[in-house]
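Tokens for Ig-like domain-containing protein. Go.
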Amino acid sequence: MLCWDQLWLKECKVTGSPVRAEVGADVTLTLEPRSMGDETVKWKRQETLVHRYRSQGDDPDDQDEKFKDRTSLFCDEFSRGNISFKPTKVALEDTGSFTCSVPKVCGQDNEDGVTLCVSQFTPLQLSWCRTNEKPA
């Protein structure tokens, strides 16, 4: 599926409903709530680690440099199943598929994803001409 809108210049392939944002915006990538405790939560963009929470805290080890100091999770809402991811000051290069994984008790990851479309906002420019005027 291809998403495109007159006001959004960047095209992106999506697997579900994309989250759209302008360059420089802060966004929240939300997934369906799930039951969990103080587990590991890992967010990736394609294969790149963008945020990891484990041992009751954020773990910046192996986090992609482009995402350092501009991502967060809603850790105080984990008990309600909120594992949403909040990248700030998004850039065009952030466009893509983000996947969240939470390990299950049996050792397999429970994964889900969302697509982020970041675009440079440009207002539409319209030209007007009167139909009864003759060209000069």
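The first strand starts at residue 2 and ends at 5.
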